[in-house]
Design brief:
The chain is globular and about 50 Å long. It has a seven-stranded mixed beta sheet, with helices on both faces. The protein contains ten helices and nine strands. It is an alpha+beta fold. It starts with a helix and ends with a helix. The protein has one domain. The longest helix has 15 residues. Strand 8 and strand 9 form a beta hairpin. Helix content is 33%, strand content 21%.
């Protein structure tokens, strides 16, 4: 969406203050732990762009709360299976050997949007060490939330997703849908249905040295996430608060309730 269209969509600029008010109306409160999925373009014309969104989230939960965002880096997946776009077979080994190591403090996100990319760059934000499935966090429990993020099954029990579950956190979909809701990956991991696993390796920095780590992941599938979300809201509507933030349709959800529902949903709909 171009900037002219963004201006036309709102009667007045979307600001830090107006977003804080809107977030409060949706139900986001001080002291909360919240996992944020966001679309800057959905908000309309924002005074200050992504930085204003980050500041509004921080102001809404205050320093007593914790803001978490996925900061994934698809550039560290296996280049042999890339499809958007694919690279020539002759390039694959060069990509594997020549890409710089993942550095939590500096490696940019890929295809995650402007808000998480801005958020992860704040000097008081900490980021987990996983080379493909990192999360960044700010606030009272930030370090504990992203610590000990194991390489194997990076969206499973050793991930920040599980930590947010244990903290009875929330999920904010700020102009986004269930198709990008990373909470559902934790449910995929926990649910009992046939899963494909894949091996990956990536360069990282450990103790000041560049090393290659190998790890195993389960193959994720987002194709049915929207159908799951529709069923969740039909059956568990009380766990969802909806309202506008700027011009963006926004939902605030109970993270543990969504994950528990999704585990059962996957077992019923993805089983043999």
């Amino acid at each position: 969406m171009g900037e002219h269209a963004a201006v036309d969509r709102v009667e007045e600029p979307v600001t830090v203050s107006s977003m804080v008010d809107d977030l409060r109306e949706v139900g986001l409160s001080a002291g909360e732990t919240v996992l944020v999925h966001s679309s800057l373009s959905a908000l309309g014309w924002v005074c200050g762009d992504a930085q204003a969104v980050v500041d509004a989230l921080r102001r809404a939960v205050t320093e007593s709360g914790t803001v978490v965002a996925p900061t994934h880096t698809g550039q560290y997946t296996d280049p042999a299976v890339w499809s958007n776009p694919p690279v020539p077979d002759a390039w694959v080994e060069t990509v594997r050997e020549e890409r710089p190591p993942f550095r939590p403090e500096s490696t940019p996100t890929r295809s995650m949007g402007a808000v998480p990319e801005c958020f992860r760059s704040y000097p008081d934000v900490v980021r987990s060490r996983h080379p493909t499935y990192s999360f960044a966090a700010w606030g009272a429990d930030a370090r504990e939330t992203v610590a000990d993020h194991r390489y194997d099954c990076g969206l499973g029990e050793s991930s920040p997703l599980a930590d947010i579950y244990d903290r009875d956190g929330s999920v904010l979909m700020l102009g986004t849908g269930y198709d990008t809701n990373t909470s559902l990956h934790l449910a995929e991991y926990r649910a009992e249905f046939p899963k494909e696993t894949v091996r990956n390796d990536a360069p990282v920095v450990e103790n000041g040295e560049v090393v290659t780590v190998e790890y195993e992941e389960f193959a994720t599938d987002t194709s049915d996430f929207e159908a799951l979300g529709s069923d969740f809201e039909a059956e568990r509507g009380s766990a969802v608060e909806r309202g506008p933030v700027g011009d963006a349709e926004t939902a605030l959800l109970d993270h543990p309730e969504l994950v528990d529902y999704a585990v059962d949903w996957f077992e019923r709909n993805r089983g043999d």
